[in-house]
Design brief:
Layout (H helix, E strand, L loop, with lengths): L4 H14 L2 H10 L6 H7 L24 H13 L9 H17 L2 E2 L2 E2 L19 H7 L4 H11 L5 H18 L6 H17 L6 H15 L22 H16 L20 H23 L5
Antiparallel strand pairs: 1-2
């Protein structure tokens, strides 16, 4: 099943009407309309004075202040639009240097992990998973730390101090990973991201198979085909395992589901919620998510060759 050219055109038209500027910029790069420099300039609208990102870049957290998770979201977007340390845009260097300074010199790192949340989250509207508390810190585990470490290697040149700091943290992280018997749904996403980064960079070649084998084994125990259940670990969260026949088949089914689930107005609905009725902003967030989930799905379909 392919996402047709007519569907792609309708989605493009709707993105301009219903999505935030950042999602429109991502989409325009993915469909070849604009350069990825426009995405970088769109990200600067979410910049904080300390070099991190906030201001609701991740839709479910309205905190105007920086947090490691919001920086991760900025890095995830930069990765979507094929940015890396070879980029020569001036704004790229500014974003990366300031964000890395925030992460490695300002943000709290405990037990080799960034806490994705910050205390000031609790002063702003947010979903339940972005409440600053010990339960959420445990639930996130090595997310977004593992992904951030992979992005550090991708966005920084090896001569940078942040690159060298990341290598030290990765050594500790991998020792922890080999001893982990289960992963949270967040950790599957983060370790998958880390593995993809080192594969693209050709790093840790001797241990890539070991990481992939363990992730595949753990995923097959918990992955779900209930695509409407956001708390489930989905096959696409385990895309590292494309060599595994069983998971590959499940990924194909999930891709079919994504295409079949597009709505009559040309975009996708977001099925999540904030987990409580504490903030009226949850309603506006659900509207913003339509653009975000649509560009994310378009990216996935393009990545897996499902665009006509």
């Amino acid at each position: 099943m392919l996402f047709s050219k007519a569907q792609q055109q309708y989605l493009s038209d709707q993105m301009y009407r219903k999505a935030r500027d950042i999602e429109v910029a991502i989409f325009n790069y993915l469909d070849g309309t604009m350069d990825n420099e426009f995405v970088l300039h769109a990200l600067t609208g979410f910049w904080c004075k300390d070099g991190g990102f906030g201001h609701g870049l991740y839709i479910d957290n309205y905190n105007i202040n920086s947090s490691p998770f919001q920086v991760y979201e900025a890095f995830r977007i930069m990765n979507m639009v094929d940015l890396d340390s070879s980029c020569e845009f001036e704004v790229y260097d500014q974003i990366v240097n300031k964000a890395m300074n925030y992460l490695y010199n300002r943000a709290e790192i405990v037990d080799n992990k960034w806490n994705p949340n910050v205390l000031s989250n609790n002063d702003f509207a947010h979903s339940i998973e972005f409440e600053y508390n010990d339960a959420n810190k445990k639930a996130f585990g090595y997310h977004p730390t593992a992904a951030i470490l992979g992005y550090t290697l991708k966005f920084c040149k090896p001569t940078k101090a942040y690159y060298k700091k990341a290598l030290k943290m990765i050594d500790i992280m991998l020792k922890d990973f080999y001893n982990m018997e289960t992963l949270t749904k967040y950790e599957f996403i983060s370790f998958n991201s880390f593995l993809q980064s080192i594969k693209e960079l050709g790093l840790y070649k001797d241990i890539q198979p070991k990481i992939e084998a363990k992730l595949t084994k753990l995923a097959k125990d918990v992955v779900s085909l209930d695509f409407n259940e956001l708390s489930a670990i989905h096959p696409l969260d385990c895309a590292f395992a494309l060599e595994d026949k069983e998971l590959k088949e499940m990924i194909d089914k999930e891709l079919d589901f994504i295409i079949s689930d597009v709505k009559s107005f040309g975009m996708w609905d977001y099925k999540g919620n904030w987990g409580y009725d504490k903030y009226p902003e949850a309603d506006s967030a659900s509207i913003k998510w339509v653009g975000a989930i649509s560009v994310n799905n378009y990216y996935i379909l393009k990545k897996f060759g499902r665009l006509e």
